[in-house]
From TrEMBL:
UniProt keyword terms in alphabetical order: ATP-binding, Cell membrane, Kinase, Membrane, Nucleotide-binding, Phosphate transport, Phosphoprotein, Transferase, Transmembrane, Transmembrane helix, Transport, Two-component regulatory system
Protein name: Phosphate regulon sensor protein PhoR
Catalysed conversion reaction: ATP + protein L-histidine = ADP + protein N-phospho-L-histidine
Coiled coil (UniProt feature): none
Lineage: Bacteria, Pseudomonadati, Pseudomonadota, Gammaproteobacteria, Oceanospirillales
Pfam families: HATPase_c (PF02518), HisKA (PF00512), PAS (PF00989), PhoR (PF11808)
This enzyme's EC code(s): 2.7.13.3
């Protein structure tokens, strides 16, 4: 801060004082010219002296700004005292601002370094600006040795490279740590500032291992239960054909129904386990979606039977998909069958297959959308976020009546996701539901047509 004693060193003459001094200066040279003769020469000498004085002051200012190491400016009077004093005030304010910013930056780095996650600051070219301490054991980075290095050159993982270069950071990805392949890292990128990114790497090894243990347990238990259930069903079917007391036949029939229901549950668990644990790359082929939907509609009309639902198929495009035919059929059949189960007798169900044009910075792209719309009982807003969880049922009593297990939508979500799609659900209680599967242009194998090509 500036002291009062220091402030006294500098002149703070106002504009009136500066003009007065200038007038007195030239009045003195004019008087000398009148007294001694040669007025123009005396005025010229005065002007040159004034210019020389200003030049000397400019030189002193330049030396102080660029070569000097002192905080305080050189002493001067008049207008140059004001100029030097103003520059001094600007420097004091800038130094104070820089100290505050440096203090904030140090605190920010200490906070980031104290987190159990690895933090890396990247510029627009993906080069490292700064990284925290945990970036070392998690990502194998060293600070400041890796300053200015491209992160993709240090973390060599194709999935990670594709993620960074895509600039699509809505969802995190999971990769193996380059320092220890047994570590699983969840990587999230948060854009900030002018095309800069903050990368956060979190150790999720324990969560990944627990999830894998759960998947293995479900798969193993399902396989182990399938064989004894098959044996029990065989004996129950044999006993139901025998000449037994009607009371025993009724009990055997009930046991057979429950065994059948448990067998279906195990089959669904096995399907879900396969969707979670296996790759479907080798089963990719072009799937004729319009033909598949027509077959599904016929099956669901038989499923509806005496309930006489009005099931309508609207085909607005002839798009086919590149994917796993079995998984896509399972997903679409589940959606239409659910609509049949949860729509009142005589209700309306619309299956709509259409193309959708999306605009982005890279241009236009065509995606395909399957919608299953019904005017059934609808779903509460509170239940929508959990609807695709395993074994979650909105109305447990009604689900038991319809044979629901709570696995159908979980299977749909995984099957659609494995085929480059996304399941979206909108519903209102008492107003029906809309289940839609959105597929990216990467798997749409035929161009869409604008006209309606079929309604059944």
């Amino acid at each position: 801060m500036i002291k009062e004693s220091d402030m006294a060193l500098y002149s703070r003459t106002g504009s009136f004082g500066v003009v007065s001094r200038l007038l007195l200066y030239f009045l003195g040279w004019t008087t000398a010219g009148l007294l001694f003769g040669g007025l123009p020469w005396w005025l010229l000498i005065g002007a040159l002296g004034l210019l020389g004085w200003h030049y000397i002051q400019l030189q002193r200012l330049q030396v102080w700004l660029h070569k000097g190491h002192k905080l305080y400016p050189p002493q001067s009077t008049g207008i140059w005292g004001n100029v030097l004093y103003g520059v001094y005030l600007l420097q004091v304010r800038n130094r104070s601002r820089r100290r505050r910013l440096a203090s904030l930056l140090r605190r920010f780095r200490r906070v980031i370094s104290a987190l159990p996650d690895g933090a890396v600051m990247l510029d627009s070219q993906g080069e490292i600006l700064w990284c925290g301490e945990m970036a070392g054991p998690l990502l194998g980075l060293q600070w400041p040795q890796d300053n200015g290095q491209r992160l993709v050159n240090l973390v060599r993982d194709p999935k990670f490279t594709e993620y960074l270069e895509s600039n699509q950071f809505d969802q995190p990805i999971t990769i193996n740590s380059p320092k220890d392949r047994l570590l699983h890292l969840e990587v999230r990128v948060v854009p900030y500032g002018q095309r800069q990114n903050l990368l956060i790497a979190r150790d999720v090894t324990q969560l990944v291992n627990l999830e894998q243990t759960r998947r293995d347990f479900v798969a193993n238990v399902s396989h182990e239960l399938k064989t004894p259930l098959t044996v029990v069903r065989g004996y129950l079917e044999t006993m139901s054909d025998s000449d037994l007391d009607p009371m025993w036949l009724r009990a055997i029939s009930l046991m057979g129904d429950q065994t059948q229901r448990m067998s279906q549950l195990i089959d669904q668990l096995l399907v879900l386990s396969r969707l979670e644990n296996t790759s479907n790359d080798y089963l990719q082929r072009t799937v004729d979606i319009p033909s598949m939907l027509q077959n599904i509609i016929r099956e669901c009309q038989v499923l509806s039977g005496e309930r006489k639902h009005n099931i309508e198929l609207l085909l607005e495009c002839d798009c086919s998909l590149k994917g796993n035919e079995s998984e896509l059929r399972s997903a679409f059949l589940n959606l239409v069958a659910n609509a049949v189960h949860y729509t009142p007798d005589g209700g309306n169900i619309l299956v709509h297959w259409r193309a959708q044009t999306l605009k982005s910075q890279d241009g236009e792209s065509t995606s395909a959308v399957l919608s299953v719309v019904d005017d059934g009982v609808g779903i509460s807003v509170n239940d929508l976020p959990r609807l695709t969880e395993r074994f979650y049922r909105v109305d447990k009593g009604r689900s038991r009546d319809t044979g629901g297990s709570g696995l159908g939508l979980a299977i749909v979500k995984h099957a659609v996701r494995r085929n480059s799609g996304e399941l979206k659900i909108t519903s209102e209680l008492g107003q029906g539901s809309n289940f839609s599967c959105h597929f990216s242009d990467e798997v749409v194998s035929k161009p869409a047509v604008s006209k309606c090509i079929g309604r059944t």
